[in-house]
Amino acid sequence: xxxxxxxxxxxxxxxxxxxxxxxxxxxxxxxxxxxxxxxxxxxxxxxxxxxxxxxxxxxxxxxxxxxxxxxxxxxxxxxxxxxxxxxxxxxxxxxxxxxxxxxxxxxxxxxxxxxxxxxxxxxxxxxxxxxxxxxxxxxxxxxx
Length: 144
What we know:
Radius of gyration: 17 Å
Largest sheet: 4 strands, parallel
Oligomer: single chain
Strand order of the largest sheet: 5-2-1-6
């Protein structure tokens, strides 16, 4: 019995778009559902080495919820490459300056750590407010 795999050409024509309203949703639960849709694991045709996922639009990123004391205690770290170049930012400060990066970073860490994961992350659009410029794509609501 042969195993059927999806081909890249089969999915290039059938692009799906989903929209998620993040207002009041818990960050981790929202991110796992978005990551599954980006990878295409919610479809029966899922193939690990082909990008079979959908485009995902996340709105109201500034209203996402963190449980417990994470808003004050969670720390995002980045390193410049120079000695002493470690920069730390709390989640509270990140929400004030770039609320979309909180969701983007959470989803990025759930995707594969290779070129395919980078390609999947390009299909994620995160907006701080309720409006987005992708009305022509007619996105469906993604159920959480």
